[in-house]
Automatic annotation (TrEMBL):
Record protein name field: AMP-binding protein
Residues in AMP-dependent synthetase/ligase domain copies: 20-371
Extent of the signal sequence: none
Family that this chain belongs to: Belongs to the ATP-dependent AMP-binding enzyme family.
Organism: Aromatoleum petrolei
Length: 517
């Protein structure tokens, strides 16, 4: 009896953090967006009302909530409400095409969808028309009687305080399409909380921190700091999308200390703020952010991350699991204490230091699998073989124990902060009736690191222009994935039965892929 009671007493999940913040940081700022500001007490009231609304709509433990909109404080409310119910929240990429959105709705099968009209409404409606509509839809940015705010206002703020097992998944993040189809990595309460403590330490997060959610919140790189700041009782500020002027305004107004800002945005900030129009001293010592070191995860210069940034990880392991802030001689640094990492060959055997193999990992940060990928031969089986999570990335270990990321086993194109997998773009292009064969490569780009180029073989009885093929992709996948360039070839070089990508790179100007570090 006593053992059973203490097992329940020891349960601690993501929603419990908010409950304690309401007690111990009642009047601290929790959420800021424009003129909206909520304390932790107000935040918890709103989350309770949303949880009761979702419960009234029939959502139960293990069911799924899909967010289809841009950055907003309401997304964090959705995640915490799902946490209190034992449900799962997925922030979808708002830049998806209507076909991609429809595919996510069908794949994730959410019970409730929170959607947005501004900028993405037409795409959402088109996606809704493509699926069997058995979902509850709630618009978060309207004023009508069925809107998010109106429905929250009529709910009870009672907290049922359901005890949630921390090993339940709470967050789903769609990863890029390794085999042409994205999959939702399911992240547990415990993985989120452990990572929060790690990020809090290395980025110097405490209850005085203010994090600007300027990067897309469908990406784990943004969510890592967002959730760490929440965990430590700091304030999260939100802007709907990345815009340099809006970033500067928010930094000045809210005294921002942390943010996600890729290099192209920093260059815009430097141009706008060259003469110190905005006070950015809470982030940088100079008006044009001269000490910005190229890493998008902006943290105080005095923090371990600010002094020694760098690391390696992936969505499936709740972000980074190896960091320079924990020591080591390489950019990837050493693994943190919540995981084990090995470098293995094709048979699963460890390779000696200095030799390249696949990075495999296990421990408390690893996801609980991909949603609905459990059939034989699918991702959950192939990625979890031998009791380790296989990252599909190549690496090596130095003599001092540091990790080196060599590159993905599956070719990846890096365009600014976005990952583009050639297989996904190739699959899209193959649906065009004029395309017989295609190889998508990355070409160096002075601004975006790489741009996407498609090398296309046309059917003998068909024709197509580069512009037509680019538009074909733009209508079906996110705009940043579409080819910027299209070249035509009579045939693609082959290595055995597959396309020789290195030969295509050499012939058509490929290069600039993520480098070893």
């Amino acid at each position: 009896m006593t053992e059973s009671a203490y097992r329940t007493i020891r349960l601690h999940a993501l929603g419990d953090i908010l409950r304690e913040h309401r007690r111990s940081r009642r009047n601290f700022r929790a959420l800021v967006e424009g003129d909206v500001c909520y304390t932790y007490e107000q935040f918890d009231v709103r989350v309770n009302r949303l949880a009761n609304l979702l419960r009234a709509k029939g959502m139960r433990k293990g069911e799924r909530l899909l967010w289809m909109g841009q950055n907003s404080h309401r997304l964090l409310e959705c995640l915490l409400a799902a946490a209190k119910l034992g449900a799962i929240c997925c922030p979808a990429n708002w830049r998806m095409s209507e076909s991609e959105m429809a595919a996510v709705i069908e794949d994730f099968a959410p019970h409730v969808i929170i959607w947005q009209e501004a900028e993405v409404g037409d795409t959402v409606r088109a996606a809704r028309g493509k699926v069997k509509d058995e979902h509850c839809w709630i618009q978060h940015d309207s004023d009508g009687p069925d809107s998010y705010e109106a429905l929250l206002a009529i709910q009870s703020d009672r907290d049922d305080e359901e005890r949630i097992e921390p090993e339940l998944p709470v967050l789903a993040v769609y990863t890029a399409a390794f085999g042409g189809r994205p999959s939702a990595a399911l992240i547990t309460h415990s993985a989120v909380m452990y990572q929060n403590l790690i990020i809090g330490r290395v980025q110097g997060v405490d209850e005085s921190s203010v994090n600007l959610n300027s990067g897309p919140m469908c990406h784990i790189a943004t969510l890592m700091t967002t959730l760490a700041v929440f965990h430590h009782g700091g304030c999260n500020a939100f802007i709907a999308r990345m815009n340099a002027e809006d970033v500067l305004k928010c930094i000045e107004k809210e005294r921002v200390t942390h943010a996600f800002l890729p290099p192209p945005t920093i260059e815009q900030i430097r141009a706008i703020n060259a003469e110190g129009k905005y006070d950015v001293s809470s982030c940088w010592a100079t008006a044009d952010a001269q000490e910005y070191n190229g890493n998008p995860m902006v943290a105080p210069a005095s923090s371990p991350w600010g002094r020694n940034f760098g690391g390696y990880g992936q969505t499936e392991v709740m972000g980074m699991f190896s960091m320079r802030a924990f020591g080591g001689s390489t950019m990837a640094g050493r693994p943190i204490s919540m995981v084990q990492v090995r470098i293995v060959d094709e048979t699963g055997q460890d390779v000696p230091p200095g030799e390249t193999g696949e990075i495999v990992v296990r421990g408390a940060l690893v996801m609980s699998g991909y949603f609905d990928r459990d059939r034989p031969g699918e991702e959950n089986e192939t990625r979890s073989r031998d009791g380790w999570h296989h990252t599909n990335d190549l690496g090596k270990r130095e003599e001092d124990g540091s990790l080196v990321f060599v590159g993905p086993k599956t070719t990846i194109i890096k365009s600014a902060a976005e990952n583009v997998y050639p297989a996904e773009v190739e699959n899209c292009l193959r649906t065009h009736p004029a395309v017989a064969d295609v190889c998508v490569i990355g070409v160096p780009d002075p601004k975006w690191e790489q741009s996407v180029k498609a090398v296309v073989v046309l059917r003998s009885d068909a024709s197509a222009t580069p512009e037509e093929l680019i538009e074909h992709c733009k209508a079906r996948i996110a705009s940043y994935k579409k080819p910027r360039f299209v070249d035509f070839a009579d045939a693609l070089p082959k290595a055995g039965f597959v396309v020789d990508r290195k030969a295509v790179d050499a012939a058509f100007g490929g290069g600039g892929y993520p480098k070893a570090h």
